Amino acid sequence: MAMTGRFEHIHDSAETLAAALAEELRLACEAAIARRGRAVLALAGGQTPLPLYRRLAAAPLPWSQVLLLPTDERCVPHDHPACNVRALGEAFAAAAGMRLASLTTEDGDPERSERAARDLLAGYPEPFDAVLLGMGGDAHVASLFPGAPQLVEALDPDGPADACRIDPQPLPAQAPYPRISLTAARLLRTRALYLAITGDKRDVLHRALASGAKNARPPVAAVLDAATAPVHVHWSP
């Protein structure tokens, strides 16, 4: 990780953003496989990154040497329409042999899922080869929601836990579920950090980064400010 800093990439459409990020993640996988025989990516949920995942899934990679895991998951059963890992699996359907890990148990129980996520991540102590984040209109990343009672601990860049339960307050109306999220400490342990945003979320990001709050930084600012790996922000209208 010789190169550090924050870089902004502006695209003229969501399609060109998807193409650029798919290529970045493909190259990250190729480099990791060449270096140590496997690649591990942590990927955002939501609708914005799904087109780039489908593009990436079509790449001629040795997919059996790639492990994908979500940056966060809703605590719902895996056959539930709101399940993040289910959506990831569908987006990567063309990536034959790819391994997909879940942060939640099959039934989505929050307490058991938190333990299961920590056990899973203990088996992958090395830095991720890439982390891709999205961002909400409230400046949350992964499921690190402003106002969640676990937020201070979850945003500690030196915290000991790799994953934790998050209870958004209030629960989002469109997805009113507890979450399991990678902590900032685990998200930051990566060789490269990407943020994909569209539309007016660029303004949300710039306001968050300009916030003068010292003890209550918006989650996206708290994570990006603590990064030691290169940070690449990709935006399209």
From TrEMBL:
It catalyses: 6-phospho-D-glucono-1,5-lactone + H2O = 6-phospho-D-gluconate + H(+). It is an enzyme of class 3 (hydrolase). The keyword Hydrolase applies. Keywords: Hydrolase. CDD domains: 6PGL. Residues 13-225 form the Glucosamine/galactosamine-6-phosphate isomerase domain. It holds the Pfam family Glucosamine_iso. Its EC number is 3.1.1.31. Pathway: Carbohydrate degradation; pentose phosphate pathway; D-ribulose 5-phosphate from D-glucose 6-phosphate (oxidative stage): step 2/3. SUPFAM superfamilies: NagB/RpiA/CoA transferase-like. PANTHER family: 6-PHOSPHOGLUCONOLACTONASE. Hydrolysis of 6-phosphogluconolactone to 6-phosphogluconate. Belongs to the glucosamine/galactosamine-6-phosphate isomerase family. 6-phosphogluconolactonase subfamily. This is 6-phosphogluconolactonase. It comes from Novilysobacter luteus.
